[in-house]
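Good morning N.,

You mentioned wanting to compare the apo and holo forms, so I went ahead and generated the holo version with adenosine-5'-triphosphate. This is what I fed in:
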Amino acid sequence: MKKAVEEKEIFAACSFSNLGLESTLCDQLRERMGFEAPTLVQAQAIPVILAGRHVLVNAATGTGKTVTYLAPIIHHLHKYNPRIERSDGTFALVLVPTHELCMQVYEILQKLLHRFHWIVPGYVMGGENRNKEKARLRKGISILIATPGRLLDHLKNTTSFMHANLRWIIFDEADMILELGFGKAIEEILDLLGSRNKDSVSTQKSASRFSSSKRQNILLSATLNEKVNRLANISLEDPVMVGLDDKKFPLKSSVQKIGSSDSDSDGETRHPDKTLSTSNGNYNLPAQLVQRYVKVPCGSRLVVFLSILKHLFDSESSQKVVIFFSTCNAVDFHYSLLSEFCWSSNTEDEDKLRPKFMKCKTFRLHGNMQHEDRRTTFNAFKTEKLALLLSTDVCARGLDFPKVRYIIQYDSPGEATEYVHRVGRTARMGERGDSLLFLQPTEIEYLQELEKHNVSLSEYPVLKVLDGFQLYGQRTHSKKVIALELHPWLVTLQRALESFLGNEQKLKQLAKEAFCSWVRAYAAHRGELKRIFVVKMLHLGHVARSFALKDQPSLVGRTHQLQEKKRKKNQKMGGLPKRRKTSIKKEVNL
Ligand SMILES: Nc1ncnc2c1ncn2[C@@H]1O[C@H](COP(=O)(O)OP(=O)(O)OP(=O)(O)O)[C@@H](O)[C@H]1O
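and this is what came out, ligand included:
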């Protein structure tokens, strides 16, 4: 894919060695990774990290934040003389929110360490075999990638986990880690590792040749915001902020900032020749990303969605699309529908063998899948050239699938932060990228929520796309059409879908389950968003149509009844649980 923006807007006018990185590592970055020059964020942050400062990094999605923190760690570990050994245990800890991100960082680390075989990479994460992890920790892991829950588990229960030499703690996607409700776990981890600013207690006595090394913590995300403030305050000492405005992000300790909109200092970096995208309360989005929305009445959502997908794949021979849904059930239903639905608009004869509606490969990824399946999907989608990935927000953060050309947010993302991360799966490293957000007419105010962060979307020409389809060999003109939902193409497609589902009982059951969890997820919007996504405004018959169901299924399934009972009990005992959003997010999203 051709770069959509000029190189100088992505890369700094210097080399990795100019930043102070060790020459073998620079060779490795060039030869093994194909990185000729550092990105702007790398040029600004690497020297500061090399200098041993605590750092807070805020830069747009897909700008190379992973290497920003890994390269300086490898640089320092490589320089220890005599060489570090496995028995020295863990020197660096990278905390990430999801299984997939854990694997991704681990893979990058493996590549970077190719010539440094004595520096051992490793990971621990929820869902993996604890005993195998224990064995690996016992042998020693120099740079450990971890999800917070499993790390805490090992810190408490794996006595052979050696971390007395720990020097770096990195929080990649720091805000997401907290969003997922890991705040308490993180505080406990910091305490156990003796890495809180004050009053920290370490469980292991440091008495090695590395004990004089100062601790260094680093927080990164494309959307660092006030939520991270507390974590930053307890974990960072005198931090340097890269790409962040300290007026919007006030920290107690003295702060040096680099690359923020009102930066007046180029600090210790040798090549801050460009500032990062501004972050004056606005989110950093890739400048070349084309962002659009499509306004669709609820009952026509599914048919418009399928039509747009068909249009995308018919018009480009190589296409990778990621689609976001609000629930695991919705992913499962749409995945099965897209994989099985057969229909051709050009044959009237019902008995003819019909071709598949979508001919590309379809993948799905969500938190209710087996870890092994998640891993297989993750790796397979990476290498495909023509494919669809249907996912929940488990895919929204940090994942770097090459050449994703389009992001569709079929279910709205909730907070603007999530919007930014979801669209950030495309338009990475200056490549082209498009995003499309589905909104119902009643939800259009959501655009103003995005505007508050300077995120503007233009309208997608949906009628033009629909007019391009042929029904029985004829173009489907909408000139006389008053409302989108009456477009002949959509009406015919909806009928075909409903009749298809009528004959596919398994799929119909999936549709019913998806319908119920979709409504529950819709009702779970909080705060300001509750005003925009009003569950009472939903016409449930229309919602049913959007799952290709002729009739509205009952919302009162057995699971729902149990949940209601639990909710009422909670209310009696003093209101909703404190982190309602988190529990709902865990239940429906990931
Ligand atoms: N200096 C570089 N030159 C060329 N490509 C690079 C360079 N640094 C990183 N990349 C590539 O850029 C892509 C994005 O990097 P990375 O995933 O670290 O971005 P990110 O800023 O962490 O994104 P997100 O905010 O979505 O997590 C990756 O494919 C990575 O290999």
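The first helix runs from residue 23 to 31.

Happy to go through it together on a call whenever suits you.

Best,
F.
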